[in-house]
Structure formats: C-alpha cells, structure tokens
Amino acid sequence: MCLAIPARVTHVTRIDPAIDTAVVDLGGVSREVSIALVPEVEVGDYVLVHVGYALNRISEEEAQETLKLMAEMTRLLDEESGAADAAGIASASRLA
Question: What PANTHER family does the entry give (predicted)?
C-alpha cells in the first residue's frame, strides 16, 4: 500500500520540465520534490507527495481534511499503544 502526504508548495524552481522542483512544507518540515508530474503547480498550491514526487494538485480543503484524518489516526494509534502498554501487551502498531 502506498501513502501520499498532502503538502503546501512554498517555492518552485523551473529549469526544465523534466527536472523542475518545488520545496514543500510537510507539517513544518521542508522537502524538495520533483514536480515533473505536475508542472503547473505554483507557490501556495497543495500537492500529494510520495517518495519525492508531487503526484497531483489538490484543493486546500482536501489537504486539510486529509491532514486532520491522519492526525486522528495517529492519536488513535497512540491511545492504543498506551492502553496496550498499561496492560503489558505489545501493540500491533509497534510490532510492524
């Protein structure tokens, strides 16, 4: 299973369509990604990023909703891990 993460474009470098890049904000962490698959992106756009590539543009609303759901999943996993620790059981999320 692959997971693409929403990110906001903060800088675009255009040299050649095959090697154009953008700097994106991934939850406070800046990363350079290829925009070869989405050459139309501009600063302020949201993109889905997977293994160093911006795969497609998405709306800010879709990005925020996805980030909210990911935060909720993390919270639930943390709760599960805490409950398992309290019971002395290794949680499945830590075994993976």
Answer: HYDROGENASE MATURATION FACTOR HYBG (PTHR35177:SF2)
CATH code of 64's domain? 2.30.30.140
Residue 41 in domain: yes
Cα–Cα distance measured from residue 31 to residue 51, given in angstroms and rounded to the nearest whole number: 11
What are the tens digits of pLDDT across the range 11-33? Answer: 999 999 889 999 999 989 999 99
Output the CA–CA distances (angstroms, integers) from residue 12 to 63, 70, 77, in the order listed. Answer: 19, 26, 35
**38 inside domain:** yes
Task: Record the pTM.
Answer: 0.76
Name every residue whose Cβ is closer than 8 Å to that of residue 77 and which is 6 or more positions away in sequence: 93
Segments forming the whole domain that contains residue 28: 5-86
Average pLDDT over residues 56-63: 97
